Amino acid sequence: MSEEKQKTKDRLLDAAENLFASKGFDDVSIRELAAAADVNVAAVNYHFQGKENLFQQVILRRFVVQRDNTLKALENILSDASNKPDIALVIQTLVEEYLKGTLSSPGGGSFMLLVAREMQSQNHHGSTTFFKEMVMPVFQAYSMALMDVRPCLRQEQINWILASIVGQIHHFIMRWHKKKSFDAQSEEVQIMVRVFPALGLSVDDYITQVTNHITAFSTAAIDSLYPEVSP
Amino acid sequence: MSEEKQKTKDRLLDAAENLFASKGFDDVSIRELAAAADVNVAAVNYHFQGKENLFQQVILRRFVVQRDNTLKALENILSDASNKPDIALVIQTLVEEYLKGTLSSPGGGSFMLLVAREMQSQNHHGSTTFFKEMVMPVFQAYSMALMDVRPCLRQEQINWILASIVGQIHHFIMRWHKKKSFDAQSEEVQIMVRVFPALGLSVDDYITQVTNHITAFSTAAIDSLYPEVSP
DNA sequence: ATTAATATTAAACGGTTGTTTTAAACTTGG
DNA sequence: CCAAGTTTAAAACAACCGTTTAATATTAAT
User: Fold this and answer.
1) Measured in Å, how far apart are chain B's first and last C-alpha atoms?
2) Helices marked H in chain B — which ranges?
3) Hey, CA dihedral for A195, A197, A202, A203, is it positive or negative?
4) Probe site for chain B from A120, A130, A194, A201 (most B CB atoms < 10 A)
5) In whole angstroms, what is the distance from residue A180 CA to residue B105 CA?
6) Which of A8, A81, B121, B190 has the most CB atoms within 10 Å of its CB?
7) B28 inside domain
8) Each residue of B100-159: pLDDT tens digit?
9) Which of B19, B117, B160 should we substitute to test contact with A (largest number of A Cβ atoms within 10 Å)?
10) Contact A170/B175, CB-based, under 8 Å?
11) What local confidence, expressed as pLDDT, does residue B129 receive?
């Protein structure tokens, strides 16, 4: 594989990431992809053996980074000997890293919306390995962390808790993207911002507010339902 | 409109509800709809002037019932003079009615999955009136109820709380449908049930457990973050 | 019974989809 | 420099999409 021709694949991957993220798998045609990447339509099948495979490559390329970021962020707070982490910090780390990767990744992409979308669709474009390689490690690492900072928690309780947290995260991600899918001056956006003012903020401020809310909400719930046993 | 010919419209609506709910708007073709309802392909356009309109009719027919059920359930607990409702009861009513309508509606349909799916998609098949007529009344009624049982709550706090609750509800709905979209003996289902045992239960038991969790989780959070001011 | 409106049917239309073909343009190693 | 292999390009392919047409069948009313 030549040096210059690798650029074609990369341009295709970049264009695909943006288009898939903003319109979903089905609503992006190969011709649209080719035009955005400024390559021929046949290039998609030549380099990726089909649209389906291109999609998986896109997901994989980004999600590996996201997985490692999320795991690294957890390691950072756990290994910081200066202050012992508590429940709130663990949750805040998970939520913040998730939102950042989804709403304000450096590539400007909202690639993880793909994951949220496909996880909730009944098409199985991704394979089981995606779940095993990408989701499970993060899930298990944060399960461990939660058990460390709150030893009385049992595994099944943590499963319920994490489901509630991830559910909230997805919901706020979807709200943001739903708003962005309309014209900024449209009546729909006006209503949405009026009902939920945080949607009128910048991405970073939105992430901050949502992170603070989910963290406070979930931490309060856990502290109340599963209080720390006094030493 | 003749008596017998109304049956054609109804058969089409029923078939559309099931198919749309299980595959989404884009993944259902008119020919597929016609075959399932045992009518000609042209019948869709003849009776409903297009696929888009049929979809909206499907949503409307069911969601009016769901909206009224949800509002009626709230009225019931509010007007029951024998025991004054608390936060937990209001939340439980919302969650339970939502889940029942989505996962075990009498028609066997999972029509409200449609709403969840379309709310989270970036296509705007439904109109703004759907939001105003169907979502807002329920939202406002439950906002009022929460203010009644916990007067210290301000509107914006309620918005955040309801977002967290609805986010959790949607997530558990999606988990259930995701599981149902696989073969019962598939490896995927085995993994899902192992990680989250509640998915192995019957629908009704699943609804009960999820309702209890979301109610307990959210009530604990609210009680801790916004405690009742002592009289 | 005849007429007019309504409902159903099979066939076709124009368009888009993902993919493949065929050939020309490159890059690269001897 | 040239032949071998790799990458691009335009065009065609087969399948499917939502919709429409035009003819037929059914119903309702006079």
Assistant:
1) 62
2) 3-23, 30-37, 41-48, 51-79, 87-103, 111-120, 128-130, 136-149, 155-180, 187-195, 203-225
3) negative
4) A120
5) 33
6) B121
7) no
8) 988 886 554 466 666 666 665 666 666 677 788 888 999 999 999 999 999 999 999 999
9) B160
10) no
11) 77
**What secondary structure letter does DSSP report for B151?**
T
Instruction: Please report, for the domain that includes residue B123, its CATH number.
Output: 1.10.357.10
Residue B22 lies in a domain: no
User: Do residues A103 and A207 lie in contact, with contact meaning Cβ atoms separated by under 8 Å?
Assistant: yes
Token pair listed for B5: 């010919």
Q: How far is A177 from chain B (nearest CA, A)?
A: 8
What A181-189 contacts at long range (C-beta under 8 Å, 24+ apart), as own/partner pairs, is A181/B122, A181/B124, A182/B124, A187/B128, A188/B124, A188/B128, A188/B131
Instruction: Pick B167's closest partner by Cβ from A23, A120, A171.
Output: A171
Range of the domain at A174: 59-225
Domain membership flag for residue A185: yes
Number of Cβ within a 10 Å radius of residue A167: 24
